C-alpha cells in the first residue's frame, strides 16, 4: 500500500473538482479532500448520488461543496467552458482536478467488440478528460500550485485480452497525462500524475469480476493516501508520474 500521512487541513482554502464523485473511489476521494479542508466540486451524472455525498460532507462539518451534474458521454466543448465560467464566478479559482469518472464498457474480444460501446468508452474515459482539462487549464494555471490527477488501471500500460476499449482508454489517459505534464513543466505550476487504484471494492470492479468475493478487496477509503499525497503540496515537485495506490 502507498503510505502517506496527510497533515490536518492541508487543503484549507483549496478548491478541488472531482469527476464521478457520486460513487466508488471518486466519492471516497471527494470526502477525504473535504475532510482535509478543501472546498470540493462534485461532478457526475447521477444528481441524487452527488446530493448524498454533498449531505455527508456537510454533516461531517466540511466546507460547503458544489454540485455539477454533467454526463461526460454527451457533454460538448461548450459545456466544459460553462463549467469553467461557473467555477470562476462562484469560487474565483481552481487548485486541483481529479479525473476519476470512467466506464468499463463490455468485456470481450476485439473482433466481437461493439463499435458503439467503443465510442462511448473512449468518449467518457478519454475525450471528456481532454475537453475538461483544456477548459479548466487557465484556472489551474492561475493557481499557485495546481494538481491534475488522472486515473489509470492495471491494463493502462500493458494490454490484456478482453479488456477492449477500457484498456485502450487507460493507455490514452496515461498519454494525455504525460503530454500535459511535459507541456506545463517549466511553464506553469500545474503538475499532472496518474494513479492506478488496483482492485478496489466498487460497482465497476464487481462488473469486471462478477464471481469475486468483494470482501477480499481493499475499499475506496483504504486507497485514499495516494490521492491525498498527489493533491497536496508534498507532491509539488512530482510531475508526469504513475503511482500504484496499493
Ligand atoms: P464506479 O463505477 O464505482 O464509479 C465511477 C463513477 O464515474 C460513478 O460515480 C459514475 O457515475 C461516474 N461516471 C461514469 N460514467 C459517467 C458519465 N458518463 N458522466 C459522468 N460520470 C460518469 O467506479 P470506480 O470507483 O471503481 O472507478 C473509479 C476510477 O478508478 C475509474 O477511472 C476506474 O477506471 C478506475 N479503476 C478502478 C479500479 C477498481 O478496482 N475499482 C481498478 C483500476 C482502475 P454513476 O454513479 O452515475 O454511475
TrEMBL record:
InterPro entries: NAD(P)-bd_dom_sf, Sc_DH/Rdtase_CS, SDR_fam. The keyword Oxidoreductase applies. It holds the Pfam family adh_short. PROSITE patterns: ADH_SHORT (PS00061). SUPFAM superfamilies: NAD(P)-binding Rossmann-fold domains (SSF51735). Keywords: Oxidoreductase. Belongs to the short-chain dehydrogenases/reductases (SDR) family. NCBIfam families: PRK08945.1 (NF006509). This is YciK family oxidoreductase.
Amino acid at each position: 500500500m502507498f503510505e502517506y500521512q496527510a497533515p490536518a487541513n492541508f487543503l484549507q482554502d483549496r478548491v478541488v473538482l472531482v469527476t464521478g464523485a457520486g460513487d466508488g473511489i471518486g466519492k471516497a476521494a471527494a470526502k477525504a479532500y473535504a475532510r482535509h479542508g478543501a472546498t470540493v466540486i462534485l461532478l457526475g451524472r447521477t444528481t441524487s448520488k452527488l446530493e448524498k455525498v454533498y449531505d455527508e460532507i456537510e454533516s461531517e462539518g466540511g466546507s460547503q461543496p458544489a454540485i455539477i451534474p454533467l454526463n461526460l458521454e454527451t457533454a460538448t466543448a461548450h459545456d466544459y467552458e460553462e463549467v469553467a465560467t461557473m467555477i470562476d464566478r462562484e469560487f474565483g479559482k481552481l487548485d486541483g482536478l481529479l479525473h476519476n469518472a470512467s466506464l468499463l464498457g463490455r468485456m470481450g474480444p476485439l473482433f466481437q467488440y461493439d463499435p458503439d460501446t467503443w465510442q462511448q468508452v473512449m468518449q467518457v474515459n478519454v475525450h471528456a478528460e481532454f475537453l475538461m482539462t483544456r477548459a479548466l487549464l487557465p484556472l489551474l494555471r492561475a493557481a499557485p500550485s495546481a494538481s491534475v490527477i488522472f486515473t489509470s488501471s492495471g491494463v493502462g500500460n500493458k494490454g490484456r485480452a478482453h479488456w477492449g476499449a477500457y484498456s485502450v482508454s487507460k493507455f490514452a489517459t496515461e498519454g494525455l497525462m504525460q503530454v500535459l505534464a511535459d507541456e506545463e513543466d517549466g511553464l506553469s505550476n500545474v503538475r499532472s500524475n496518474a494513479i492506478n487504484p488496483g482492485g478496489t471494492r466498487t460497482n465497476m470492479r464487481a462488473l469486471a469480476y462478477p464471481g469475486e468475493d468483494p470482501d477480499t478487496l481493499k475499499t475506496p477509503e483504504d486507497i485514499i493516501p495516494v490521492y491525498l499525497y498527489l493533491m497536496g503540496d508534498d507532491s509539488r515537485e512530482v510531475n508526469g508520474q504513475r503511482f500504484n495506490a496499493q
